[in-house]
Amino acid sequence: MATLVIFFYGVVLFAVQTTLVPKAAVSGVVPDLALIATVYCAFTLSFSRGLFAGFLLGFAQDCLSGVMLGVNTISKSLIAHIFCQLKGKIIVEGPIPVFVFMFLASLCDGVVFYISSLMLLPNPLSPEKFFGGLPVYALYNAVLGPVLVMAFDRNFKWWAGRLKAS
Q1: pLDDT in tens, 105-120
Q2: Model confidence at 78, in pLDDT bands (50, 70, 90)?
Q3: In a domain, 22, yes or no
Q4: Does residue 153 lie within any of the structural domains?
Q5: Residue 20, domain member (yes or no)
Q6: Which residues pair with 26 in a beta bridge?
Q7: In this structure, is residue 166 part of a structural domain?
Q8: Does the chain have fewer CB atoms within 10 Å around its N or its C terminus?
């Protein structure tokens, strides 16, 4: 049952990412809800489940985007692995640590995307354009991250209580 709940949240997450989030673009930059969910899963689930969630979120994002297939899968899997390793060493509670880790995860995601564009695209992104938008992307995810993490926590705790009661 818990797997169905997580699947439902994934469907809602990608529906919001593809329909509502583009309307909230700042200088053409939109937050990455899959990245925020990946970091959340890496910190809250077991190592194997967190890594698998990162892989699935990246794969689903690749299936929906179609820009450079595989880049989101690699990026989200790498970020999930890093943060699954860190969760035993660092306690992440409260908005400030979540802000910092979302910012760092966004920078890592951006660097993976940029390196992949250099290797795969015939006309790679210009460094000025890409690195000019990277801080905005990282800040956008970092500001939105603590709010979504709090919402994820509340919803998952509510569902966990409902599932134990039934």
Answers
A1: 999 999 999 998 888 8
A2: very high
A3: no
A4: yes
A5: no
A6: 29
A7: no
A8: C
